[in-house]
UniProtKB/TrEMBL annotation:
The keyword Nucleus does not apply. Pathway: Amino-acid biosynthesis; L-leucine biosynthesis; L-leucine from 3-methyl-2-oxobutanoate: step 1/4. Its cofactor is a divalent metal cation. GO terms for molecular function: 2-isopropylmalate synthase activity; metal ion binding. It catalyses: 3-methyl-2-oxobutanoate + acetyl-CoA + H2O = (2S)-2-isopropylmalate + CoA + H(+). It comes from the Eukaryota. Its EC number is 2.3.3.13. GO terms for biological process: L-leucine biosynthetic process. It is an enzyme of class 2 (transferase). Belongs to the alpha-IPM synthase/homocitrate synthase family. LeuA type 2 subfamily. This is 2-isopropylmalate synthase.
């Protein structure tokens, strides 16, 4: 079968069925938290190759309650004995403020079974669906007319009513009702209003207990603006709007479910049905994690708790047996990781800037978050800063030095950052993959630390200062020499004494290029970290950095210089 050069022969453009006068939604924005319904245990579950076991369903239900969902579609009770049993379990165990929702087609025997399963619950929502689109009525229901569809929906609703809110034997349950004109997004908008009016009349909702009209994009047909139009049209044309809760149920066939849900809320919807991380039929239901955290990052509380997103991912992956994509918005393992140099540089500077702003504020004041490349503070969802920056062949100096800072508390001077990034680059190219933090730290230590094996090691020293001049007796163990060598140097400070001692004894011409130090802690017993670069002279001078750490800053400097000597000896045979 060819991939058509002219697809218009096979695929017809979806024409917006709504003629909306004075369209209002484009001028509005999202400003409130919707009612959420999690359908992981129904729509999500029915789309899995291996539906959840009873134990998995229990685990998922517990997690959904912990997150804070107050409406949870727990099953399609007439589908299987697991669904039926689980609904009975959920009916008895969910917290008092949680509504459990159950789905049934408009088929009498299945409605009986569905309502049977939910008996004894404190709050229940019985949910019936019937497809309204011309395509489904023609193809699936064998030319079911609009009138016949309406009759079916009304009969189903009346049956639910008689078994629930009108049934004197079941009054311990707070009964609610939801009707979904399935395939809403592909349906004639006038007919949807007509069938919903008939269902509403049959149910007789009140302002206090509205009926839920769930308007699904069962299949996402076109761009999200059209769904928003369809929702605005419905909201404006359904009678007694205050007695109806308008619910969305977007699927993600075109990859726009989140956008569709957001625009449709702006267009007037009150409630959203979806699944964690977008599980669900085909490309999935709308992803509730993304919707909720999109609100959160606009400063609106989603009233759902994602502070420990990893534990949520664990449960989702265990129950669905599907991995959460590493690039899933917010939750994916890689979404708070930067590998590329420019991103790392910007993130590192972003944190430095943010920390300096925080330091200026009085305690308890929150500094607004606006960091390059990070729309959300990873800590808000339980991610650590340490893992944000990872180093591979695409990385730059900022990335490698961030890892060293976060893992070794060493704040490398710029020159050493540049030098180390070349070392890291060579290593990542050699191994052909990312360097883990521990590997990078080891690479840093073996390249710049004194406590690696080398030709020189510091045995002792005596440093004195007399009348503005400094003198150093330096005791080194030098590979190949039978005993400890005593060197002597003069200078205007310990470092120059050391270098002069080395230069005169070994006939070298080393120059100190750069020196930095900082303490590695806040108290007086903290260690000092020193960073020194020395250069060789001659036609092909080479600059070598060394790092030393010691309680005594002079000794830390000497250790840095020993490290430089060992590296130069190893690489340049000085
Ligand atoms: C968009 C959605 O997600 S809808 C929810 C879908 N979820 C599920 O289907 C999961 C659970 N389903 C099941 O376990 C089974 O399909 C059952 C138990 C509901 C029904 O099983 P069966 O009786 O074997 O019916 P089957 O699944 O083959 O076919 C569907 C039948 O229901 C009819 N039907 C489909 N939707 C509806 C509806 N909303 N209301 C009334 N009848 C419907 C079809 O027209 C078809 O009838 P037909 O056999 O006369 O042509
Ligand atoms: C049952 C309905 C609401 C559904 O899942 C859909 O249309 O996608
Ligand atoms: Mg669905």
């Amino acid at each position: 079968m060819p991939f058509y050069s002219d697809p218009s022969v096979k695929y017809k453009k979806f024409v917006n069925p709504v003629k909306l006068q004075n369209r209002e939604w484009p001028a509005k924005s999202l400003h409130k938290t919707p009612r959420w319904l999690a359908t992981d245990l129904r729509d999500g579950n029915q789309a899995l190759p291996d539906p959840m076991s009873l134990e998995e369903k229990k685990l998922m239900l517990g997690k959904l309650c912990d997150i804070g969902f107050k409406e949870i579609e727990v099953a399609f009770p007439s589908a299987s004995s697991i669904d039926f049993q689980f609904t009975q379990y959920a009916a008895k165990t969910v917290p008092d403020d949680v509504y459990i929702q159950v789905l049934s087609p408009c088929r009498e025997e299945l409605i009986y079974k569905t309502i049977e399963s939910v008996k004894g619950s404190k709050n229940a929502i019985v949910h019936l669906y019937l497809a309204t689109s011309a395509c489904f009525r023609r193809v699936v229901f064998n030319n079911l007319s609009q009138e016949e569809a309406k009759k079916k929906a009304v009969e189903g609703t009346k049956l639910v009513r008689s078994l629930t809110k009108d049934n004197p034997d079941t009054q311990t349950t707070n009964w609610n009702y939801e009707f979904s004109p399935e395939t809403f997004s592909d349906s004639d908008p006038e007919f949807v209003i007509e069938i919903c009016e008939a269902v509403k009349e049959a149910w007789e909702p009140s302002r206090e207990k509205p009926i839920i009209f769930n308007l699904p994009a069962t299949v996402e047909m076109t761009t999200p603006n059209v769904y928003a139009d369809q929702i605005e049209y419905f909201c404006k044309n359904i009678s007694n709007r205050e007695t109806a809760c308008i619910s969305l149920h977007p699927h993600n066939d075109r990859g726009c479910a989140v956008a569709a849900a957001e625009l449709a809320q702006i267009a007037g919807a009150d409630r959203v049905e979806g699944c964690l991380f977008g599980n669900g039929e085909r490309t999935g239901n709308v992803d509730l994690v993304t919707l909720a955290l999109n609100l959160y990052t606009q400063g609106i509380s989603p009233k759902l708790d994602f502070h420990d997103i990893s534990s949520i991912i664990d449960v989702v992956e265990k129950c669905t047996k599907l991995p959460v994509h590493p690039r899933a918005p917010y939750g994916g393992q890689l979404v708070v990781c930067a590998f590329s140099g420019s991103h790392q540089d910007a993130i590192k500077k972003g944190f430095q800037h943010y920390d300096s702003q925080v330091a200026k504020q009085s305690e308890g004041t929150v500094v607004p978050w606006h960091l390059p490349y990070l729309p959300l503070d990873p800590q808000d969802i339980g991610r650590t800063y340490e893992a944000i920056i990872r180093v591979n062949s695409q990385s730059g100096k900022g990335g490698a030095s961030w890892v060293i800072l976060k893992n070794m508390q060493l704040d490398l001077p710029r020159g050493l950052q540049v030098a180390f990034s070349k070392v890291a680059q060579a290593e990542t190219e050699l191994v052909g993959k990312e360097l883990r933090s521990s590997q990078l730290c080891e690479l840093f230590a073996t390249t710049y630390y004194v406590d690696i094996e080398g030709r020189f090691s510091l045995v002792d020293y005596e440093f004195t200062r007399r009348r503005g001049l400094c003198f150093l007796d330096l005791f080194l163990s030098i590979e190949g020499e039978p005993q400890v060598q005593k060197l002597f140097g003069e200078g205007n400070g310990p470092i120059s004494c050391f270098v002069n001692a080395i230069n005169s004894t070994l006939s070298l011409e080393l120059d100190v290029q750069d020196y930095h130090e900082h303490s590695l802690g806040r108290d007086s017993s903290s260690k000092a970290a020193t960073y020194i670069s020395v250069s060789t002279t001659g036609d092909n001078p080479h600059v070598q950095w060394g790092v030393g750490i010691h309680e005594n800053v002079t000794q830390a400097s000497f250790l840095s210089l020993i490290s430089c000597l060992n590296s130069l000896s190893r690489d340049y045979h000085i």
